[in-house]
Amino acid sequence: MACPLQFVCRTTRTVGLVLFYYVFSIGITFYNKWLMKGFHFPIFMTLVHLAVIFGLSALTRSILQLWTGKPRVVLKWAVYFRKVAPTAMATALDIGLSNWSFLFITISLYTMTKSSAVLFILFFSLIFKLEEPNPFLILVVLLISTGLFMFTFHSTQFNMEGFVMVLLAAFIGGIRWTLTQLLMQKAELGLQNPIDAMYHLQPLMFLGLFPLFLYNEALNLSMSEKLFRVTELRPLLYSLFTLTVGGLLAFGLGFSEFLLVSKTSSLTLSISGIFKEVCTLLLAASLMGDELSMLNWLGFAVCLCGISLHVGLKTYYSKNKLPSLQQHNRSSKLALPLLRQESDQDSTTDEDEGKEQEMVLN
């Protein structure tokens, strides 16, 4: 009786964690799209989100330090600017352009185009030798590229400006997650915990986006009645409240992804991310009125096949490398940086896959 009970409890916990992840991941997509209808300052919105995430990360680090009695990692300034800055700049541009694109395109086109980020992640992973070349990668690239072409071909709600923005964000996202993987693999930095990584990334992300805000939005925002030229306190409080809620959703997304991976596995995150794309498109069609033809749906299915093949290949090669990784870990005094205690059966590459798939599938 114990085994069935344990299975039911484990299944219930996994479903609960997946739903928790869906709430934040799908929620922030629709929330940002809704907010952009009345607040046309996506870069400023992103800056507020970064400030909220930094504040919550600092608070979480303080709570963890009091709870465990162990000090959290703090990087030296020289190491901070040299090692963290490239990842922070790429992350800032990825998020900024993604939010900016909501001014022009539908949620369905955004979801489909952003899913193509796996192509660029594969490209940069091969350049940085994080991915081993194999013939199946060609099939992955062909499936995703064909699916994206079919989805955008003769789309009734296609917008070139927004499409270019989100495609550029997907390209930069490939750089972002490749650099993030390299950053979190460096054991000497001590940024394996996503809370510590978010804490160190947000300030440089803020500094990276701030010049773009000054150039593109600062003047218009200073003359807008949304914030600085309000005549009543209520509209100002409403704007600040809606922006803060977006920051809470952004922090919750990162936390829910980490919680799902740590309590289950990176494979669970990857598979649930695929189904999340389907849910997002269905909700966009039913709630937002996005118009999708049969060819668009077929293109989306082809793209999902490519992403699913990529996830399957990552899982297969990760499991095959597991014995050699475990043997190396036993014979080495330096533990593998990403080999966590979640399960002795999870490999370093499995953990990396989870980090990589966070935005590939978001």
Automatic annotation (TrEMBL):
GO terms for biological process: UDP-glucose transmembrane transport. One of its GO terms (molecular function) is antiporter activity. InterPro entries: Sugar_P_trans_dom, TPT_transporter. Keywords: Membrane, Transmembrane, Transmembrane helix. It is a multi-pass membrane protein. Residues 16-309 form the Sugar phosphate transporter domain. The chain crosses the membrane at residues 14-31, 43-64, 102-124, 136-156, 162-179, 199-216, 236-255, 294-313. It is found in: Membrane. One of its GO terms (cellular component) is cis-Golgi network. Residues 341-362 are annotated as: Disordered. Residues 344-355 have a biased composition (Acidic residues). Pfam families: TPT. This is Solute carrier family 35 member C2. It comes from Oryzias latipes.
